[in-house]
UniProtKB/TrEMBL annotation:
Protein name: Galactokinase
PANTHER family documented for this protein: GALACTOKINASE-RELATED, MEVALONATE KINASE/GALACTOKINASE
Organism: Dactylosporangium aurantiacum
EC number: 2.7.1.6
Domain GHMP kinase C-terminal: 279-356
Family the UniProt entry places it in: Belongs to the GHMP kinase family. GalK subfamily.
The GHMP kinase N-terminal domain, residue ranges: 85-173
GO cellular component entries: cytosol
Lineage, opening ranks: Bacteria, Bacillati, Actinomycetota, Actinomycetes, Micromonosporales
Length: 379
């Protein structure tokens, strides 16, 4: 089966420039990014490809393979729907001083939409790469390390989704065979080796098929709760509270719900640091219990899981996974299970049986390996 980039290259007869940005899964570190904390994502082989050719007039004609729609817009209008992510990138690049030319853009994607695999960030980052290329802006003028912040601003301010920077950073900066250890405050990164095959392991992704969305009241409510707690505790962000100081911090909060939100963020930051330590030491299996503890925290303290993802985690563990957790913003989406190669089929079958017994829509399952971030596709 051809990839999105291969399909798009064929459909455009090699015309113009073509860039690819991947979706991502987060190995661990959920809802820590907008708290200035730590995350550990890696890029998927599933990616969004965008091709572009310049137009003389300053307007943008965008065609989506997925929807079959073509949307045309110019600078005089605010764009909605899926094309808002494209218009947002035009806007943020202009805000950054880039003379964005008019363009005809074509989009193809292998990233499942609504599964919590960051299809929106993949689109933003690929569009940004194409438009920068068409504008003649090279990596020296607009370095890859600066692009995640721009893409995040596009999604926050134009689209209206209050996301952190993890998704855009992962889609842009990841390297094949590595997880990206990202400090969301300083934007310092470390490529942490994550060679699953050498360890005899696989990451099995279970798409719960439960709807997933970021632009909703629940995500925003949790972000507000964290900001309110930080203000009460007198810190810039919850990242400034370490695990040892957590009991004292919780004692200063009157609201039990906010206490639980804080406990998740602080303990999740520590779990990211602990996971990086075991990966650096080459003990990949030791990440499993940390993943499982992360899921319990998301379920009980942050309250962002749904029955489908809880069932997937429980079934994966029951059938031999070293660890399992939901990945993404929550309220649906995907589960990651860290499994021995020889147990992968058993875990997959066990999850499917558990879904059938619960009367859920059958899940989609696939194995992933860490792939590269944004790159130009060679035709």
């Amino acid at each position: 089966m051809r990839t999105a980039a291969e399909r798009l290259s064929a459909a455009t007869d090699g015309a113009g420039t073509l860039w690819v940005s991947p979706g991502r899964v987060n190995l661990i570190g959920e809802h820590t990014d907008y708290n200035d904390g730590f995350v550990l994502p890696f890029a998927l082989p599933h990616a969004t490809a965008v091709s572009g050719v310049r137009l003389e007039r300053r307007h943008w004609v965008v065609t989506s393979e997925q929807t079959g729609e073509t949307v045309t817009f110019d600078l005089s209008e605010k764009v909605g729907g899926w094309a808002a992510y494209v218009a947002a990138v035009v806007w943020v690049l202009r805000e950054a001083g880039v003379d964005v030319p008019g363009a005809r853009l074509s989009i193809a994607s292998d990233v499942p939409s609504g599964a919590g695999l960051s299809s929106s960030a993949a689109l933003e980052c690929a569009v940004m790469a194409v438009l920068a290329d068409l504008a003649g802006v090279d990596g020296a003028r607009l370095p890859m390390r600066d692009r995640p912040r721009l893409a995040q601003r596009a999604e926050n301010e134009y689209v209206g989704a209050p996301t952190g920077i993890m998704d855009q950073a992962a889609s842009t900066l990841c390297q094949e065979g590595h997880a990206l250890f990202l400090d969301c405050r300083s934007l310092a990164t470390e490529q942490v080796p994550f060679d699953l095959a050498a360890a005899g392991l696989k990451i099995l992704v279970v798409d719960s098929r439960a709807p997933h969305a970021h632009v909703d009241g629940e995500y925003a409510a949790r972000r507000r709760a964290c900001e309110e707690a930080a203000a009460v505790l007198g810190v810039a962000a919850l990242r400034d509270i370490d695990a040892d100081a957590l009991p004292d911090a919780l004692a200063k909060l009157d609201d039990d719900t906010i206490r639980r939100r804080v406990r998740h963020v602080v303990t999740e930051n520590q779990r990211v640091l602990d996971t990086v330590a075991v990966l650096r030491a080459g003990d990949l299996r030791a990440a499993g219990p940390l993943m499982t503890a992360s899921h319990a925290s998301m379920r009980d303290d942050y309250e962002i899981t749904v029955p489908q993802v809880d069932t997937a985690v429980e079934a994966a563990l029951a059938h031999g996974a070293h660890g399992a957790r939901m990945t993404g913003g929550g309220f649906g989406g995907c589960v990651l299970a860290l499994v021995d190669e020889e147990r992968c089929d058993a875990v997959r079958d066990g999850v499917r049986e558990a879904f059938a017994a619960a009367g859920f829509t059958p899940p989609d399952t696939f194995v992933v390996t860490p792939g590269p971030g944004t790159y130009r596709f060679s035709r």
